[in-house]
UniProtKB/TrEMBL annotation, chain A:
<keyword id="KW-0812">Transmembrane</keyword>
<dbReference type="InterPro" id="IPR000515">
    <property type="entry name" value="MetI-like"/>
</dbReference>
<feature type="transmembrane region" description="Helical">
    <location>
        <begin position="236"/>
        <end position="254"/>
    </location>
</feature>
<comment type="similarity">
    <text>Belongs to the binding-protein-dependent transport system permease family. CysTW subfamily.</text>
</comment>
<dbReference type="Pfam" id="PF00528">
    <property type="entry name" value="BPD_transp_1"/>
</dbReference>
<feature type="transmembrane region" description="Helical">
    <location>
        <begin position="292"/>
        <end position="311"/>
    </location>
</feature>
<feature type="transmembrane region" description="Helical">
    <location>
        <begin position="34"/>
        <end position="54"/>
    </location>
</feature>
<keyword id="KW-1133">Transmembrane helix</keyword>
<keyword id="KW-1003">Cell membrane</keyword>
Automatic annotation (TrEMBL), chain B:
<dbReference type="InterPro" id="IPR017871">
    <property type="entry name" value="ABC_transporter-like_CS"/>
</dbReference>
<dbReference type="GO" id="GO:0005524">
    <property type="term" value="F:ATP binding"/>
</dbReference>
<dbReference type="InterPro" id="IPR027417">
    <property type="entry name" value="P-loop_NTPase"/>
</dbReference>
<keyword id="KW-1278">Translocase</keyword>
<keyword id="KW-0813">Transport</keyword>
<protein>
    <recommendedName>
        <fullName>Spermidine/putrescine import ATP-binding protein PotA</fullName>
        <ecNumber>7.6.2.11</ecNumber>
    </recommendedName>
</protein>
<keyword id="KW-0067">ATP-binding</keyword>
<dbReference type="GO" id="GO:0015417">
    <property type="term" value="F:ABC-type polyamine transporter activity"/>
</dbReference>
<dbReference type="GO" id="GO:0016887">
    <property type="term" value="F:ATP hydrolysis activity"/>
</dbReference>
Length: 424, 366
């Protein structure tokens, strides 16, 4: 063997081709077959997961609408200095008039108004109102357009509006992302929004904080349950397991509504507390439609995702370890803490990642029991997708959420090690 | 059998009973005294209650009835971690998340021992099992035999006076097992530790122990040193369980002093030593070791009874010949002869006569 490799040169197969190449050829066929087997799944994931995510990421920076709708104005505005305090030249106004006429004919003027309104509230009415009259513009012979446009709407005389148009004319923008982190493009570049307009960062912080609280609650509640499950005889463990899985068989809405019934001010828990005398009838506890309600309901809903990985990890730990520790002189607590607990960390890690990532993107439960104080960032995303139709901002928020999850995942890998995660 | 237990043993089981379910007794009336420094093996078939006894001694199970004393003190109410008993588990139970050195440090840390003292003891324990270079590894990076040694070192590192081992060699191959058997007994004797060793491998029990307690049905069937156990089994269970054994059934027809005559079911008669039989007419199982059967007439005593036998099979095993015979209707009668130049090799179908010295043939309970 060794002298064969010592001679140098490639090792040849029986038919004279280099061994490496014939091996590669043999393996290629195997790989192709394996690829065929997973092709349907790959295709499915591509269509239903990778493409939508890519599309979302694209939407969060895409801004083609301004140049497409107002091509001439964008070119004409290019050399205008927004910080001069003067209005743009007559040529720019003429270009805008021509663009608006075309846009009004194509009925796209309101769209560009809506887009710019995200950045400069109020600007949409400027486009809407001007657009109504723009169809009758006589582009060749009319003018001067500066006076004509300002005459239709005073907004055209405000350099700020022109600045917005200029700033958001490139086909790619950071505006949605700036908005998502409570910033905007001001005269001197990016700046923080006024205190009263800051929502998203606080919401993100709240989402992270509440998800963390929910994860910790799940760990504390799930650990003893998983321990009991892992140490009971098989039959009783299976019975209990059904109880753990029972929530999966009930609709999420039903479970969340049940919490509403339990926790509301005229609800079961308040009734009992009043009846016992712990709480005065006039001072019933507010335990729903706030953060507390969200945490309680979501801990309940996500608990199985914590119990299952913990249980499957604990099941693999033979009880002899505890016995060995005790025979070596450890008290019950030392034996648990130094011998049993470290071996369950992979289960805790797997459960925590699962619960935290599920919680951070949760939507239905906070929407139903969160009130105003207990909603998550996902509720804002949903709002922008379905109500305000600001998909760009929704995408930017979604992308930030994705980035946060990836960063946390990376941090977890650095601290605990991802191969330390066991689902069974 | 249940003779009174002497009170001066280091470990004493006094009328101990154990039931898990309240219906059946897994351990019935266990009386056992183990002297300091003794190597005692509990041997018995699966389910005979060996592990249960060990667990009661270690404190992981409580005796339903009776006393267990350690160094004269009853330990029924002492929790396991205060008993100071070293234990080697069947699967070793080395903590997988700790290195070998950390595993060994564990019993010392919980005893709040200083760092330098700890390190010295760990080093000594590792050297003792010849694993000095492996302190930094994880248990999963060791072979079975190496893990076994570490388990042993961990059970000994805190210098317990009593060590319990539950089938510690069960997972090892034969060669390694024999090596470890030797090493364990050597260590135990050198350190003067009292050892209770559980196995269901009888060779292991015979080669390692000072005393062997044969368990069956929740009782000690016989407690004796290995040679007595093999040569002088006190009942047919022990005779059957330890070593290879030939059994013939019959009725006692005559008892004279320390010999008796047994008439087998097919009418033939043989000489035996009465052990568990007391009167004429009783049914008995006679037990003869295969190597004590003689078919060379010249070597038999004058006037001894002989039996007719037909050779069924001759197996050449190198150092010995193993021949299967049909004797008094029993097709599984085995004899073993040393491979010596003057020994005749029997042929299948050959008719021979066999006999033995009466003291080698024991009439036991039926
Ligand atoms: N935790 C338990 N609960 C109920 N019954 C048990 C328990 N542990 C052991 N038993 C029963 O007690 C009897 C003796 O068991 P034990 O483990 O002591 O046997 P053993 O002699 O160690 O056998 P082996 O050689 O197979 O290890 C068996 O019949 C077993 O089924
Ligand atoms: Mg056992």
């Amino acid at each position: 063997m060794s002298d064969m490799t010592d001679t140098g040169g490639p090792v040849l197969a029986a038919d004279g081709t280099p061994l490496k190449r014939s091996l590669a050829r043999a393996l290629r066929r195997q790989k192709m077959r394996a690829l065929m087997l997973i092709a349907p799944l790959l295709l499915f994931i591509l269509i239903s997961f990778i493409l939508p995510v890519a599309d979302m990421l694209y939407r969060s920076v895409q801004n083609g609408i301004v140049t497409e709708t107002l091509p001439r104005s964008v070119v004409a505005l290019a050399d205008w200095d927004a910080n001069s305090g003067d209005l743009p030249s007559e040529a720019v106004f003429a270009a805008m008039a021509a663009d608006l006429k075309d846009a009004a004919a194509a009925k796209t003027h309101t769209k560009v108004g809506t887009r710019l309104n995200y950045e400069n509230p109020g600007i949409s009415s400027l486009f809407r109102k001007t657009g109504r009259k723009a169809k009758k513009f006589d582009v060749e012979n009319g003018g001067p357009w500066k006076e004509a446009l300002i005459d239709i709407n005073k907004g055209w005389g405000d350099p700020d509006n022109w600045r917005t148009i200029q700033t958001y004319s490139p086909p790619v923008t950071a505006g949605y992302f700036l908005n998502a982190v409570d910033m905007r493009v001001g005269p001197d570049g990016a700046e923080s929004r006024p205190e009263s307009e800051q929502i998203y960062m606080n919401l993100l912080k709240r989402t992270l904080w509440m998800s963390l609280t929910i994860t910790v609650c799940c760990i504390l509640l799930a650990y003893p349950v998983a321990w009991i499950l892992a140490n009971l005889p098989m039959r009783q463990a299976n019975m209990l397991m059904i109880l753990v899985l029972l929530p999966f068989w009930t609709s999420l809405l039903v479970r969340t509504s049940a919490w509403k019934i339990l926790l509301q001010q005229q609800g079961v828990i308040n009734d009992i507390l009043v009846w016992i005398g712990l709480v005065d009838d006039s001072a019933r506890l507010v335990i729903i439609n706030n953060q507390f309600g969200t945490i309680v309901a979501m801990t309940h809903i996500l608990l199985p995702f914590m119990i299952l990985p913990m249980y499957s990890v604990m099941q693999t730990i033979p009880p002899t370890y505890l016995r060995a520790a005790k025979s070596l002189g450890a008290t019950d607590w030392t034996a648990f803490w130094r011998v049993y607990f470290p071996q369950t960390i992979p289960g805790i890690g797997a459960g925590s990642i699962l619960v935290f990532i599920l919680a951070i993107g949760y939507y239905i439960t906070p929407a139903l029991v969160g009130g105003t104080k207990g909603t998550f960032i996902s509720n804002q995303i949903a709002f922008h997708i379905s109500s305000s139709l600001n998909w760009g901002l929704a995408s930017a928020l979604g992308a930030i959420l994705l980035a946060v999850v990836l960063v946390l995942y990376w941090a977890y890998d650095k601290i605990v090690g991802i191969d330390n995660v066991k689902l069974g | 059998m249940a003779e009174a237990v002497s009170d001066d043993g280091f470990v004493v089981f006094d009328r101990v009973q154990k039931s898990y379910d309240g219906e059946t007794l897994v351990v019935k009336d266990l009386n056992l005294s183990i002297a300091k420094g003794e190597f005692l093996t509990m041997l018995g078939p699966s389910g005979s209650g060996k592990t249960t006894c060990l667990m009661m001694l270690a404190g992981f199970e409580t005796a339903t009835h009776g006393d267990i004393r350690l160094g004269g003190q009853p330990i029924n109410n002492i929790p396991p971690h205060k008993r100071g008993i070293g234990m080697v588990f069947q699967n070793y139970a080395l903590f997988p998340h700790m290195t070998i050195a950390e595993n060994l440090a564990f019993p010392l840390e919980v005893r709040k021992m200083g760092k330098s003292e700890r390190e010295e003891k760990i080093k000594r324990a590792l050297d003792m099992v010849e694993m000095g270079a492996f302190g930094g590894r994880r248990p999963s990076q060791l072979s079975g035999g190496q893990q076994q040694r570490i388990a042993l070192a961990r059970a000994l590192v805190f210098e317990p006076e009593l060590v319990l081992m539950d089938e510690p060699l069960g997972a090892l191959d034969k060669q390694l097992r024999e090596k470890m058997q030797f090493e364990i007994t050597d260590l135990a004797h050198n350190l003067g530790i009292t050892t209770v060793y559980v196995t269901h491998d009888q060779t292991e029990a015979l080669t390692m122990s000072d005393n062997v307690a044969v368990f069956d049905d929740g009782r000690i069937q016989q407690l004796a040193p290995p040679d007595l156990l093999y040569e002088k089994p006190e009942n047919s269970f022990v005779a059957q369980f330890i070593g290879e054994n030939n059994t013939l059934e019959g009725i006692v027809t005559e008892i004279t002093g320390d010999t008796c005559v047994v008439r087998l079911d097919d009418g033939e008669e043989l000489d035996a030593t009465p052990i568990n039989v007391s009167k004429v007419g009783e049914r008995t199982k006679v037990s003869i070791r295969p190597e004590r059967v003689e078919y060379n007439k010249e070597r038999l005593q004058e006037g001894a009874h002989t039996l007719k036998a037909e050779v069924l099979e001759f197996i050449y095993m190198g150092d010995i010949f193993r021949t299967r015979l049909r004797v008094a209707g029993n097709d599984e009668f085995i004899i073993k002869t040393r491979n010596a130049p003057d020994v005749e090799r029997l042929q299948p179908g050959q008719q021979i006569e066999i006999g033995w010295l009466p003291q080698d043939c024991r009439a036991l309970d039926a």
